[in-house]
């Protein structure tokens, strides 16, 4: 099947030009000047006049169907990937979480079972390591063979996900040897746990105490500690969901020293702040995520960090829980509020506001949402760019159309959005996944379960 996109304003991380794109089957076969393929017969033709054409966006940080001790995230791999597609995202990387006492292979299989036949866009996995006794470092080699080339460690949540410094160093050392990339959730979990226990004992149980017991300085301290351990292990390091200036400064300083360190932030840390925890009644629970919302000054620091390329990726940490019945589990105790926000549908539109308001250049925007994620996570040039031979994952983007973000119209399966009422200008009209139209006029029109699992190259292979 041959598809032609004509009269598009094509934008990649390194180029910006008018052109036509010829697609045969799942791949881009040729790119030419406007009208270059007029003599060819195409089964489908899209006239992109007045619109941008971007590579399909990649969200490298999602938690579909995330199980917690008392509930499960409201989006599964079907609803969550439909929402992602409607927002211009054609690939996600989700986290397969090792349970203590279980192997990495068991964790990976559990997430394959969740996604297989349900995901409507392409997907891959990171593996979250919690227990080296049940899964020694050599088990990481099996993950590489399975195409899972990134390993996540959490310095928060003692008793469940948190690992100690010895485990971190051992995983980093092994990852460096086998060509992997370690991702770290950086917060000082031990001190935070003390602050949480003290707050609850004092009767401070409202949602705002979630933020007050997780101060930004403890994120910064943990980020610096992770960087130090990675430097000693000679391992590349990726810091997830940087939320504050403390953590940003640590990442920026490491990069200035030439260390292989990368930083990710999320739209919530660019647009939302700690004032939301003062919402009337229990409404502040809608904004409970980890790390929590920070100050307006931190918002501004992160925008500047993006502009100066001190942060390289914007993803979502999409972990949706309904306000009614799920967030309300913590109605009388903030520690019982499921941590997480919905965001996979609106990430690209929210970041495009940075282009529209002059904070980001257009090519830099594409780099943040598509190209650098593909490069860092072993998917480039199959994904993340527009070039002959690449997958035909493409977004025809209408820069003039506006929409108001609302729970009433979103595709995420959750009863609220933290961006309720925010107006954005610039939305995806048409989205193609490997040459197939899956979104038209902002609505999902694809079939069921058309996403493919993506085995990924190692970090060291990708950078060759």
- β-strand percent reads 15-25%
First and last CA, distance: 33 Å
Counting helices, strands and paired strands, the structural category is alpha/beta
Characterize the biggest β-sheet.
9 strands, mixed
Q: With helices defined by DSSP (H or I, 4 residues minimum), what is the helix count?
A: 13
The CATH architecture classification is Alpha-Beta Barrel
Specify the CATH class: Alpha Beta
Percent helix range: 25-40%
Domain count: the total is 1
Gyration radius from CA atoms, angstroms: 21 Å
Poorly predicted runs are none
Order of helices and strands: EEEEEEHEHEHEHEHHHEHEHHEHHEEEEH
CATH topology: TIM Barrel
Q: Average pLDDT, to the nearest integer?
A: 97
Shape: globular
DSSP E strands, number? 17
- Relevant CATH superfamily: Metal-dependent hydrolases
Describe the fold and architecture.
With 464 residues, the chain is an alpha/beta fold. It has one domain: Metal-dependent hydrolases (TIM Barrel, Alpha-Beta Barrel). It is 30% helix and 22% strand. It has 13 helices and 17 strands. The protein has helices at residues 77-86, 104-115, 139-145, 165-178, 189-201, 208-212, 216-233, 245-256, 267-271, 296-307, 347-356, 362-376, 459-462, and strands at 2-11, 16-24, 27-32, 44-47, 52-55, 57-62, 89-97, 122-128, 150-154, 181-185, 237-239, 261-265, 313-314, 394-404, 423-433, 436-440, 443-444. Strands 1, 2, 3, 4, 5, 14, 15, 16 and 17 form a nine-stranded mixed sheet that branches.
